[in-house]
Design brief:
The structure is a homodimer. Chain A is of the alpha+beta class. Chain A folds into 2 domains: 64 residues, Winged helix-like DNA-binding domain superfamily/Winged helix DNA-binding domain (Arc Repressor Mutant, subunit A, Orthogonal Bundle); 142 residues, Chorismate lyase-like (Chorismate lyase). Helix content of chain A is 26%, strand content 35%. The longest helix of chain A is centred in the N-terminal third of the chain and has 15 residues. Chain A is elongated and about 70 Å long. The two termini of chain A are 35 Å apart. Chains A and B meet through β4, β8, β9 and β11 of A and β4, β8, β9 and β11 of B. β4 of chain A pairs antiparallel with β4 of chain B. Chain A binds a DNA duplex through α3.
Chain lengths: 245, 245
DNA sequence: GGGCGCTATTTGTCTATACATATTACATTG
DNA sequence: CAATGTAATATGTATAGACAAATAGCGCCC
């Protein structure tokens, strides 16, 4: 059995995948450093004995993934890793706690329907007299306070939320299943716990906390702003990152 | 001039792009909610009067971007936004400070070449008797302490670093230009400043700090571990995110 | 009714060809 | 020599046709 010249899809993995892994390997290993011009499509076409469309798909894919940049007439070049970027996963807290194998608990501390205050408006770019739902709740892991959630929800954008009581289902869980979003902004900072927070999270006043704020919009219309406050030493965000993926 | 049946590349944007934007729009707007089965390739092919390869490229692209999932014989489905994920950009501190339009300053506080201590080994999974370079430096923004950097560097992996004195060029800048990496891990947490740190950053003892730790490898070989400590209120990580991109 | 295998359908991959478009390098001209 | 036009070249997009692989769902048999 020789390598047939055409129609060779029945091998092991797809030819397309083999070529891609091959090229990715050379880039990752440093054999083709940033800035290096990789072979032209017609050269790769000869190297791998395939049609141009096949190598084109590979190179386009690598370009879409940001590993190479392509310029007409000039060729394809290994791109310099733009900035150190990490994909931070901020999943549902319930899922996250249960992933750690710990018992998850949820308590609604406060629920108030009101017209947006000056503060609310600043948090979410709301217009005047917008009805909002303000929620404050606590998430526990292994029966210990794990995060305090402070959220406002634009009821003009999500009127259905007014009928939800959120005493059992956390707002984040409900939102994920019911409200799609198009833009999000995250902000991560650190702060010292004030006395209220210290009491709610059962930590000492002044203890360092990790603060994650997230705002989401749907086609420009503000939906919700949430502040998650974690006891500093108890929680950390971890992200593993491989440029290839 | 009617829409020609074939060879219509000369319009405005590429047909491929039009179809993709169209489908993305329907997904984003909620018209096609998560779980919805989108039209089969042959249906889209009729809708847009084009070849299957063209819609195939669109759908494959959407799948690669994570917006849809495809199953043979079943069809293509809008995927549930897996987890809330945000692309956190952690660029070079110098670039970041200058982007804010502030004056950047850098001071090397400590530089020590040594065999890996027990602590170093725990930080980077180093073998015994590995030579490391330990650095401690301060980054200023607008003449105010902005971050303390505490780094160890595996000299077996990056021997050239031993010849660098890092009194002018920050290690992060030098590394970005000289050492490629294949894997990275980020960890973000909060902690209270101890007396040493408080003195170095010119803040009060006990003040909350944002701690970013990053470890990088090259094909499994540990390269460097760095801890960046920012005064909590002074610094925050912000990331805007649109699922489409 | 339950388990098994067949088949039709849908996506996955590949080819060969064609024309469009951008850009570089070179030649021509003022 | 500089500005400008032109040809060569590499990528971008699109087509039609073909076969491969997975699988949902149906019918068959016990």
């Amino acid at each position: 059995m020789k390598a047939t010249s055409k129609r060779d899809a029945g091998g092991g993995v797809a030819l397309y995948q083999r070529i891609r892994s091959d090229i990715e390997g050379r880039i990752m290993s440093g054999e083709w450093p940033p800035g290096h011009r990789l072979p032209f499509e017609h050269e790769l076409m000869n190297t791998y004995s395939c049609a141009r469309m096949t190598v084109n798909k590979v190179l386009s894919g690598l370009a879409a993934a940001g590993l190479v940049e392509r310029r007409r007439r000039a060729g394809s070049f290994v791109s310099r890793p733009k900035v150190h970027s990490a994909v931070l996963q901020i999943p549902d807290l319930k899922a996250e706690v249960e992933n750690r194998g710990e018992r998850y608990g949820y308590t609604l501390l406060q629920r108030q329907k009101r017209q947006a205050t000056r503060d609310d408006k600043a948090r979410l770019d709301l217009g005047p007299r917008t009805p909002v739902l303000a929620l404050r709740c606590r998430h526990d892991a292994a029966r210990q306070p794990f995060a305090l959630e402070d959220r406002i929800l634009n009821l003009d954008a999500v009127p259905a939320a007014a009928d939800q009581d959120f005493s059992i289902v956390p707002p984040s869980t409900w939102l994920v299943d019911h409200v799609p979003w198009t833009e999000a902004e995250h902000r991560i900072s650190a702060g010292n716990a004030d006395s209220t927070l210290a009491a709610e999270l059962n930590i000492e006043e002044g203890a360092a906390c990790l603060i994650i704020e997230r705002r989401t919009w749907r086609s420009g219309e503000p939906i919700t702003a949430v502040r998650l406050i974690h006891p500093g030493p108890l929680y950390d965000l971890t992200a593993r990152f491989t440029p290839s993926s």
